[in-house]
Amino acid sequence: MANVQEELLKVNNLVMHYQTLRGPVKAVDRISFDLKKGEALGLVGESGCGKTSAMLSILRLLPSNARVINGEIIFEDRNLLKIPKKEFNRNIRWKKISVIFQGAMNALHPMIPVGEQITEAIMLHEHLNQKEASERAGKLLDLVGVGASRIGRYAHELSGGMKQRCMIAMSLASNPDLVIADEPTTALDVIISAQVLKMIKDLQRKLNISVIVVTHDLSMVAEICEKIAIMYAGKMVETGDIKKVFGEPKHPYTQGLIGAFPSVLGSKRVLKSIPGSPPDLLDPPRGCSFHPRCPYALEVCRKEEPGITKIEENWIVACHLYR
Amino acid sequence: MPENEAIFEVRNLRKYFSLKLGFLKALKGGSLLVRAVDNVSFKIGKGEIFGLVGESGCGKTTTGRVAIRLLDPTAGKIFFEGKEITSFPHEEMRKLRRLMQIIFQDPYESLNPRMSVFDAVSEPIRVQELEHEEDKITKMVNDNLLHMGLAPPEEFLYRFPHEISGGQRQRVAVARALVTNPEFLVADEPVSMLDASIRVEVSKLMLDLVKNRGISMLYITHDIALARYMCDRIGVMYLGEIVEQGSTESVLMEPLHPYTNALMLAVPVPDPTARRLKVVVKGEVANPVAPPSGCRFHPRCPKAQDICKTQKPELREIEPGRLVACHFPEGK
């Protein structure tokens, strides 16, 4: 699969702060990653690590108290942060970059039939008339396994899994190049969640779209992504090819996180836990933000923030142990 | 499990909820019943952890609540330490609650926001009148907080739930449940609201405490991978019924029921070299108001035959300690 692919998205040194009464919250602190066409990236971290903020920055859907302080988001050779708001809304968001929001249950309008909502999304971005758009909505519903016959159903007439499929159909409304899925299977049951994940993977391959899965669930990323990026306290601690990172995780936080996920396969290994809890982003620890929880913390970790170390092509880690 | 040592047992437990109908439908008569728990039986031995796993709406939480009589069963019997407690009057149940405790899923909702940690953990001691001297109460609270890894306890005593993290809240909830030295504990998804790194820590502490004190536990979860770490035996529930039961490793590694098998294949594994996500069943869980005839799983089952549509398979013992409710168990 991985022959020479063109680069689709490149995030460089992105910094985003939320202004609060108690001072700036450094939600996203100099993160960088890139994504090729047709590739699936898992953006992983625990709650409050900044993964959703990073995603909202790309989509320019940040709340009013958020400020992108620095960095660039290059998408198809253009810096998304420099594109005028109007043009971004019309030509980029949903047309080129779409999103599957968390909690499909609440993302659909309760009083408009799902098909109509999808039709609306198509008409907003494509030059199609009502009839053509409606036909396309039907095709999309077929594609995601809901079936065109359900085009007139309301959200409350559909199960959770079906609603999530409708959300996915809507995200594909105008053939985007990149789909960002924020916790696409929360609140879904095991079997339904497997169906949805499998569908996302199949669509990614079939339509050659790039996918960013934003989640706390390492198992989900292990199942469907080619690349992984792990965030901790607003920073990127490790990114790389998924098999390599899982095979030999470098950053102590990555090691801890992987060790903390129980598996139903293989022999029962001892689960490892990470002591302590994530820091307060209003007042993050000095040096490496993971040092208070790190079993290998050195003197330098308390003082200096670690730079980026390249382990090999497309595999980087931010840790003093690999200087 | 040695049968004679069963400390807790439910026999043919049923819990039906009636659905509120519209005025016209109610006039026509008849009522709709949700069969949340339908003929469920299991035993839990002393010091044993029995897990109930299944998807949402399968009745596992209701089973847990009926088990300690937070809800009254529609039918069936509940035994605790050899005594039938199904129809114990309120006053007797209250005394018994010292020995039977529950930990709820959401520590954001289960702790009173106006009670400090000390108030929350000491409340059961006062209600149960286990101790009257303040010094001793404080010591009991401190000890239990310490056991749950809240050290030093003095630092937490006078904090309120909003001043501590989610993981710490759940530790407080566990300490509160354990402060009365219960013999039997129901844990309803105790760590599902917590982050991955915190989840393991709290699970390990719980496991150690429960095992060290010889507490028996009913562990309710949808997370099968975690159930593997926590439970000695498990029961898999589907639409209000237990479809398979046995030791955790045997049920999960060699599932006999097609539903257990489907669940296992659908659980994502944290290993990219072992990608396998398979969906062997179609559709979604049926409506519990009108469950399918015969075997409730038959409309989704890849192995369903004609008999499955008409005849309900009994939960039968295939090997010692290994029960399955299926006409055509896997590999048999």
Name its key features:
heterodimer, A: 323 residues, alpha/beta, Rossmann fold, eight-stranded mixed beta sheet, four-stranded antiparallel beta sheet, 11 helices, 12 strands, globular, B: 332 residues, 13 helices
Look up the CATH topology of chain B.
Answer: Rossmann fold
CATH topology of chain A: Rossmann fold
| Biggest beta-sheet profile of chain A | 8 strands, mixed
**For the terminal residues of chain A, how far apart are their CA atoms?**
32 Å
Identify the overall geometry of chain A. globular
Helicity range of chain B: 25-40%
* Distance between the ends of chain B: 24 Å
Question: Mean pLDDT of chain B, nearest integer?
Answer: 91
The strand line-up of the biggest sheet of chain A is 6-7-8-3-9-10-12-11
Main β sheet profile of chain B: 8 strands, mixed
Element-level helix/strand string of chain A: EEEHEEHEHHHHEHEHEEHHHEE
CATH architecture classification of chain A: 3-Layer(aba) Sandwich
CATH architecture of chain B: 3-Layer(aba) Sandwich
The named CATH superfamily of chain A: P-loop containing nucleotide triphosphate hydrolases
What sequence of helices (H) and strands (E) makes up the elements of chain B?
EHEEHEEHEHHHHHEHEHEEHHHEE
